[in-house]
Every structure is written in structure tokens, then in C-alpha cells.
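User: Hey, my collaborator sent me this sequence without any context and asked if I could get a structure. I don't really work with proteins. Can you help?
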Amino acid sequence: MNINDCLNYDDFRKLAKKKLPAPIFHYIDGGSDDEETLKRNTEAFNDCDLVPKVLANVGKPNLSTTVFGRKISMPIFLSPTAMQRLYHPEGDNASARAAEKFDTFYSMSTMANTTIEEIANVSSGPKIFQLYIHKDKSITDDLIDRCKRANFDGLCLTVDTIVAGNRERDHRSGFTTPPKLSLKSIISFASKPKWVFDYLANKKFELSNVKNKTEKGTNITKSVIQYINEQYDPGMNWNDAEYVIKRWGKPFAIKGIMSVDDAKKAVDIGCTAIMVSNHGGRQLNGSRSPFDQIKLISDAVGDKVDIILDGGIRRGTHVLKALAAGAKACSFGKAFLFSLSAGGQKGVEKLLQNMRDEIERNMILMGCKNLKDLDYSRLIFRR
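Assistant: No problem. I've predicted the 3D structure and written it out in C-alpha cell form, which is a compact way to encode the shape of the chain:
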């Protein structure tokens, strides 16, 4: 199998599994505890059916939408994901270039292996930066100010990771950055010599955007979970979010909203968007899925804020169901990380083309000329 043979999520996942050492693959693939929420994120879409309308003179549907104050050409974009150089040597650069080609958002993680400034030079496409509140507030301020200078379009504050979830797969695999070797993992890495060569031969692994502010960004000898637990502020609150909004002064979202009350509070403090997300099932196991919550949140605040569904997206029909339930756009992480691992920029481009084709084809089959034609009347739930 090569990248051109990848027709769906499972194909990209299988190809990525062939290329990545087991600890790296399972870091992408896994969730927290028993991974019930991870599974539910996608399974939730199967609880309802789409209702098409025929003879609707659709022609070529318009897939564009506007989020973070910027019009994008398709209603799905790349979620912020950390340490993309673990998956492919070009990492964030490849993802940003692919997203630019499809005129949709690339999102940069605080824990990226590329700097804000490098991405600004690599891509002129739509860009979001994902922020964490650090215990050292100067790190937070520095990241905000650099994003302003680099002319990022939006900022999203992740609020569901003040402590790391219990990711048992990572404990079993010994996943650290750089990877901690055991006999089992040595065998896994030895079986993927190209990955090992790329990792050793390319730019030194680092958390590029924080390396000048904390030694944890230059001497990465601890696990991702330890970094989160040591560096992120567990006392983060609504005042911190409001402070970031004022310092940023541009389109802003909170990522990790799951309740109606929190969605209303986000509107009250000045958010222009919210990302309904449970961190891909990697934090609170047993949490509701984003799709399960979209209609409730949309009914409460959908006329006041842009709602983005983040989590569980595997197919274009999932995007249509999310939009019909009240989202304005969707974002995904696992799918594009598998495509990045499978084929770098070309892999991400193939995934985005697949998704665009699926969304367009199914819009035509649904009898929808544009995304506004997707409303709750187009869904019937089975329960």
C-alpha cells in the first residue's frame, strides 16, 4: 500500500502503523483509561441518520464557511497536535503547507517542534495557535505576543489538560520524548530503521516555542505527561481566559468546552468561537462525545458564537451531521496525524482531498447547495 491507495481513515492508520515504532503509533491511536470515550467520539455519529432531499438543483455545492474571522474553503481543518516531528521529519511544516493548499486552517500546538515564526514564513494560509496557560505566566505572554507579530488569524486556549489524562497505552509502551527504550521498544524501533534514521539525522528534537523560556523545552528527558503536570497551571480559571482574550485582541476560542453552562460563560467573557472537544478521548474517560453535545450547545449559544466540533471525525458524512446539529466547522487530529505519518505533506493533502471529495459528493446527495442548507431537520436520531 502507498499513499495513493489510502481511501479512508483506516487505510491511513494501517500505513502509519507500518512506518511508526509502536510507542509512537499508540501515542496517536490511544485514549485514556479504558478508552470508552475515544470510541464513543466516533460511534456517536452512528446514532443518527441523514435525510436527503432530491431534485434540489444543487449543481456544485459551496463548501466554504467562516470561522476565526476568516473564510475557509471547506468546513474542516487540522486540530492542534503536539510534536509532529515524531511522525514525519517535516512535521508542522508539512501540515501547514498542506492546509494552505486546501485553504483551510492549520493549527499550531504550544508543544510544536517548529517555531511560530518559521510557520509564518512557510505558510501564508489560515493559521491558529493553540495555547496552554503555564505556571510561568511570562511563557504564556510571550507566545501570545509572538503570534500577534506573526499575524496568526486566531488563538485557541485548551482548558481540559490542566493535568494529563491516564493514558495507559503510553505507560505500557514507555512513551517519552525522546522515547524511553525498553527491550520491547528497542525491538519496535529496530524494526523501523527509516524512522530511526530520520529522527537522528534531522533537526534536534525540541519544543521550539518554549525552549528559550524553560529548560524543559531544551532538555526533553521527561514524558509528555510529566511536562504537562509540571508546566501547565492547574489553577487556571475564567479570569485567565479573559486575560488572554484581552491581550490577544483577535478572534479567540476556548477548546475543551463540553457543557452548556461553560459555553454561555465563554460567550460572556468575549469568545468568538468555542471548540466542543474532549481532547480526542485522551483526558476524562467517560466524558460525553462532542457530537452528543453539539445540539444542546448550539441551541443555547449558536447565534452568539462560532461552534466547532473537535473529535471523532472519520468521514465527510460525520462533518455533515455535525453541521446539521449546529456546528459551523469541524476539526480533526488523529486522522491527519496518521496521514502525516504515512506520507508527509503528500499524505495530509491526500486526506484533505478525500475529505473534500466526500463532503462535496454527500452535499450533492443530500440536496444541499451550501452549508446553511444543513439544519436539524436533516437528521433523525434512532434513540
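In plain terms: Residues 49 and 309 are 18 Å apart (CA to CA). You can pass these C-alpha cells on to your collaborator as they are.
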